[in-house]
Amino acid sequence: MGTINLRYEDFTLDSYRACIRAAKNAGYTFISYETFPRGEQFVLWRHDIDVSVHRAAKLARIEREEDITATYFIWLHAYTYHFWERKITDLILQILECGHTIGLHFDCEYYHNPTGDNIDDLIAEEARILAGVLQTKIQVVSLHNPSRQMLQNHKSERIGGLINAYSNYFFSECKYISDSNGLWRGDPLLDILREGQYPRLQVLTHPVWWTEEPSLPLQRVIQCIEGRAQQNQSDYEELRNRILGHTSIEN
Ligand SMILES: [Zn+2]
User: Any idea what the CATH number is for the domain that residue 140 is in?
Assistant: First the structure.
């Protein structure tokens, strides 16, 4: 898989903006899965939201400022956010308002790695739920942490009626780069974009890795977990104060 680059300074919001600018300077067009393939030199720019919609919304705003669009995949079974929470739904709607596309991040393991028609039905059902909540079309799916076997079994261009981001179609046509685990395996994204040696790219980033200041990958995740825990606590305290404020009960 090549060398692992632990360049924490790569994962700041400033560096993120630099990546977008490098891609634009190198002549890449930002395209969506629905319009693939288009032109000679393009990039599919994709985010799997595994941990933080708050961080995703920050990236979405930067992309809007830079006048590019991306596809954001929502995981319905995430344990650090819930797409049906009002605040989270509103953030996802903000991402849509920035002009981006929302896709389904489908968790095979949740369903004990389904196969055949079963997986098609489950993906179609989750896409229907997400489309209903957001009032938008869900046309593309990416698999969350797919096993080698799942990837092997699901290489077709569509699953559950949706475009499959993991289909052979995209992988055979494009150089694939991912920020999995908050590091680069092989050349860092910025270098690849600057050099422009691959005319067709699929770039996967996970918003949790991109922060204001550089820090260790684990620390970036802990910040999100603690931020959510603090929010839960203050929401509860607010509710409690409201209820106690309307009663004469003292404790
Ligand atoms: Zn994922």
Answer: 3.20.20.370
Ligand 1 centroid from CA 48, angstroms = 5
Q: What is the pLDDT of residue 52?
A: 97
For residue 181, how far is its CA from the centre of ligand 1 (angstroms)? 11
Burial class (CB in 10 A: 0-12, 13-18, 19+), 119: buried
Q: What is the pLDDT of residue 250?
A: 53
Taking the complete model, does pTM exceed 0.85, yes or no? yes
**Domain span including residue 131:** 4-213
**Local structure of 160: helix, strand or coil:** coil
Residue 103 Cα to ligand 1 midpoint, Å, equals: 12
Number of domains in the chain: 1
